[in-house]
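Cross-posting from the modeling subforum.

Setting up a comparison between two proteins and wanted a second pair of eyes on the formatting. Protein 1 (sequence, then structure tokens):
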Amino acid sequence: MAQDKAAPAPDHDGLDDGLGREAEDVTVAVMAASRLLVAVSARALASFDDSMTLPQLRALVVLDSCEPLKLAAMAGTLGVNPSTAMRMVDRLETGGLVDRRTNPANRREVVLRLTEAGHALVDRVMAHRRAEISELVAKLPPESRAALVPALRALTQAAGELAVDPFDEVRRIGGLVEDPLQPGA
């Protein structure tokens, strides 16, 4: 009969995952801030379209930053499989927010771009989100505001998130295309 191994003893801070107290405090604070920012985004989106999901909004934001874009590249940028991206595009196209066309130069490719309504929705949601975040930031003491900028930039860069350069991921996966639907534009 095998003996059960004892669980590793937690370190002096009660953390058994190797993180120090400072790293754990930062992790908890970032998670709380993340929940706050998701809530801000959800409220901003709901103020204009209560049927759209946050992943759909993220797809619109990617297109707003990087269009025209191949469907496969959008899927890769969003971290979803192409069939999931296609279903998302189906819903966004039905809502009049996305234009989907076959690339005349390569009939196997689907090229996406936002419609005027899609651009307008992204602009309104982002303006609403920016205003709410600005109100929150204005409530902070000046030294806290100043400390947030380098910390948030470092966190975003460490994650390799699109906010640093929206084209990096799209370029990496080869999804940024000349507009095949408007040659010479």
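Protein 2 (same layout):
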Amino acid sequence: MTSLELSSQGLTSLPEVPAGVTRLDLYANEISSVPAALWEHTGLEVLNLAANRLSTLPPGISALTALHTLDLAHNRFTALPDELGDLVGLTEYLYVSDNQLTSVPEAWCSLGKLKYLGCTDNRLTALPADLSGFSSLRELRLYRNSLTALPESIGTLGALRELHLRGNQLAALPDSIGELTELRQLDLRENALVTLPASLARLSKLDKLDLRWNKHFREPAWLRDFEEVGCMVLR
């Protein structure tokens, strides 16, 4: 057996997991704790624990060196361990959306092969100062948090194609945003933006810029020229 599908089964605890399982799906159950024995299944490549009642994880998850996708969304976490940053095989997805997280651990920034990070619908007030370790990140979703600023290091995410920031409290963007040369989509809806840095005009691959519901936004003169060369701007 390589895949074990146990979603929406009303489970309150983790059943015995057979040896050799590489994909374990426990989505939408009533599980409130994870036994440390789960980390003995070092061949796991996909682990879905989303939509349960989890608030903590036992130590040892870094043993899952083959894991490329981890879903912990829709739970009750107020914090998650630094140890997630030691998941060297995490190349595809890390979902931690819809929890009660107030910070992203700096240790996670060593996930240099990760392509997708979903941290939406939490209580984040800031990001780590140095994001450069996320060198392979293609999509970053941070909407509906409480971010008031982005670190200058956001510009080091050279592989980023989508940046989703709807529903925060951003009043300005750092000039380094203009260094995201692979960016295609930038969602800035429902913030407190007054204007945009001129560096953003350098993003030649940007095809969608969403600025709706920034009440005090003053449109920079270059924005219409930017629109005329092919970027869809939503106001």
